Structures are given as C-alpha cells and as structure tokens.
Amino acid sequence: MASFLDRLDAEARALLLAVARPVACEQGARLVRHGEAARGAYVLREGAAEAVVTLPGGEKLTVARLEAGGVFGEMALVERGTCTATVSATAKIDGWFIERDDFRSLVAQRVPAALRVQHAVTLALAEKVRQLNARVLEVPTPEDKPVSAADRGSDPLAGAKRSKQASFDFKSFLPHLPLFEGLDRADIDELVAASSLLELPSGHAVFRAGHTGAAVFVVVRGAVEIHGRHERRSRRISVRGPGQLLGYMSALEKRPHAADAVVREHALLLEIPRATFEKIYFAATPLASKLHRFIEKSLLMSLAESNRHLARLISQARLRGADKEGNELEKAVGGQIIAAAMDG
Q: What is the pTM of this model?
C-alpha cells in the first residue's frame, strides 16, 4: 500500500509543503494528547509514532503505528473535532504539520495540483474505511448470512435497461438531495447529462464485491443496502438513500468493490461511467471541489457507522456476560474505533 507521500507527485508535494510547518521531535515526545482540539494533520518524513488510548479500567492500548511517509490527523483537515488518542514519537521524528485552515485555503485554489493533494487525503480516508470495515466483519454475529456461489457471479447490471428518461419528473427535486445541495443548475445538468438512469426493483444487485467498478451511482429515489463480506459470510453495514453516492471508493482507489450493493426498495439511480466520473472529479472546477468535499464527508459518515457497529459488538458481548470475550473484542477491534477517529 502506497504511503501518503508516495501518492503525491513532485508538484503536489511541493504545493502541500509550502503551507506546512516543519516539525522535529525526539523519541518519547508527545505530538497530540487525548481530548485536545484537533488542529490539523502530521506527515512523517522520517521516524515513527504510535497512538495510544486508555480503555475502561485504565489499561493502555496501542491502536495505530505510524511510519515514515505516513499521515495522521487527516480527518481534522475535513472537519473540526477533538483528538481521541494520544500520539507519541517512538523514534526521532522529522516531518511537517498542516493546519486545517491552511489546507482548506490550499484546496480552494482549484488548481490541478491542489486537487491531487485533496485526492491523496481522500484516499487515506478511504483506506481507513476499508480497514475498519474489515475489522468489523472479522467478528461473526447472528446477523451474518452465507454468501452463495450465485452471489459471486457476473455483473448484475449486464442486462439492466438504461434510459435518459424516468417514470416520473425527478429533476425537480434533485436540488433538495444531499449531493446536489449547493450545486447550481448548470452543475446538476452536467451530472445528469453524464448519467444513464437505472430503475431497479427490490433485491436487485447494483454491484458485487470483487468486481471492478465500472461506474459510480447516485441514489435518486429508494434505498440501497451495502453488504460487507468476510470469507463466506455477508452482513449489512449501511443503507444509502436519496442523494448518496455508491461505488465511488472503487472508482477512486482503482480497486475492486469491497462490498455488495443491493436495492432495498424500488430505486432510481443515476449511473455515471467511471471514466466520466474521473474527468469531472479531477477537473479544476467548482463542481469538482464540491464533489471532493461531499465525498470526504461521506467517508467520515462511513467511519462513524463502522465505529457504531464495533461499539455495538462490544456492548453485546458485555450484556451476554462474556467478560473474557468482551475484553478480547475490545483489544482486537475496540481500539480501531479510536484509531479511525483519531484527530478527527
């Protein structure tokens, strides 16, 4: 997996470091403390650090280890919050600190290099979502369902009918949906013109885990469930309703889908081909900036959902009186709740 710095080309790296403040500290020094206001992100050029939380009962638990080229606190670049872990240097550190306001000013420039910096932050968040969901799915629950051979088949949309017209006038209420809020009519028209319409019944799959994403989808009406997979088990991890994006992580990371998407109730979707989506996403336009911002917030929402799932698993173990199981679960995944939210 590429480090944060490896994802930046020379121009993008120079642009980011132009607003960064050099940071150097000795082994054992504390970079951030639990409960402090999160002000921005740290990028490590050399050295290493670890994030530690205190579990109920006072036990210390290391929830993340950070190495050269890595970044932490990137969620603070998206939204204000508090530090939920204490981060200390485990080796002499040489790096940079990026203030949130400086970062927001940088990406507001809408130059291609600034968009690539913002994209690197988005990929770092997306990787956290994938890792956290994988940890959630490692723990079996009664909600799990077996994955059949049929669920691993070909593209579920291979025979789906695409259209430019829907069975109702959907354009009139698009401005009221989350993705389209704040977009002007020209931006909305651009997204609609780039899309095909899919009307799918309940139970119809939109994409399958393991398949390469060919498109990004916007839910216009209805709802779509996201089902995570672990080996031969599947579990619902979220529901996406009107105005939400589907499949964007696969498109941005250029990786196969990590989950299944299945229509929960009769849905109308906008289908944007991946190449078209990338062209819009990487353009130096106000629409691209708004799309970046929406995706960042969507990733934070996904992290919060996964955190709630993990917390529920721990609570259920405690309620069953399985103290040993609860302790092991807290050590195995409880810390990931903190790590995912660190500095954000």
A: 0.82
